[in-house]
Design brief:
CATH class: Alpha Beta
CATH superfamily: NADP-dependent oxidoreductase domain
Number of strands: 12
Shape: globular
CATH architecture: Alpha-Beta Barrel
Number of domains: 1
Order of helices and strands: EEEHEHEHEHEHEHEEEHHHEHH
Structural class: alpha/beta
Helix content: 25-40%
Amino acid sequence: MNYRHVGKWGVQVSEVGLGSWLTYGGATEAEQATACIHRAYELGINFFDTANAYAGGESERVVGAALQAFPRESYVLSTKVFFPMGSGPNNWGLSRKHIMEQCNASLRRLGVDYIDLYYCHRYDSHTPLEETLTALHDLVLQGKILYAGVSEWTAGQIAHAVDYSRGAGLRPLVSNQPQYNMLARGIEKEILPLCEREGIGQVVFSPLAQGILTGKYQPGQPPPEGSRAADPKQNQFLKTGVVDAYVNDKIQVDDGLLERVQQLTPLSEEAGLTMSQLALAWCLRQKNISSVIIGASRPSQIEDNIAASGRILDAALLARIDEVLGI
C-alpha cells in the first residue's frame, strides 16, 4: 500500500480508503463488516470513512467498534455532519449548534476521543459561512477534530471558505470529498486546480461509479445477483429493466454506456489489471487525489481493489480509455 499526504498537510492516508456508505450498519451484518475492516487494516489501509447520517448513526457504531482492535494513532478516521439526525428544526445543517452536538454524538458512537477528518457533508445555504467555519475552528482548538473538510461543495463555495478562513485567522480546510470517476469528471475543470493551489487534498467517493466500472453490469441484462443494484438496501439506481441512471447524480447509464464500459475490459487485461483496479488507478493518476474510497461487503473485494495502489497508467492507455468512453 502506498500513502499520500492530504493536500499539503502532514497527515498521510492510504491511496485506497474504506468507506461505509450503504454497507456497514445497514446492508452488511456487523460481523461481516468487522471482517472487512480488519482485513483492510491488515492489507495496509489506514483511512476509514463514515458519516453520522449513514444508517442513522449505526455505521459509526460498527466502524468504531471494529477499529477498537487497533491503536488509535495507527489509523485516520473521518466522519461528517449536515444531513438530518432528527425531526427538529436544529437537527440538520451546519449551524454551530448542530455541528457541536453532532460532533459530540459522533465521538460517542465511534468510541474515540477525537476525529481525524471532519467533513461538512454538503453546503448549508441557510447558515452563514462564518458560523460554520468558526465552529470547525473551535472543534480543532478543543481537540475534538484534527482537520476539517467539505464534501460536494462547488469551487466557488470552497474558494469563499478559503478566503474567509485566511482573513479571519481560522484553521484552514484541508480536504475535499467529491464524487470522481471515469464517468463523472466534474471536479477537473475548477475544483482540482483550486484545491491544488490552496493545498486541499481530495478523497474521492464512488471511484467505481457504484460498480458500473467493474464491468459486472451487462447491456440488456438485469443486475447480477449479489450486486449493489440488485440489493434493495444498497441500490442507488433508477431501474427500468436494466441499470438505468444514478439517483444522486447526473450520469445517464444506459445500454450504450454499459457497452462502452465492456470495451474497457481488453484494456485492463493488457495492463494486467482487473476492471476495478483500472478504474481506481485512473483516479489516482491525479496528484491532488489523496485517496479513493471504496465500499466492500466482502474481504475479497478489498484484496482486489488495493492492488490499484502504486499502479501507473501510461498516456497511451489513458487516451484509449477516453476514446472508448467517448470523452
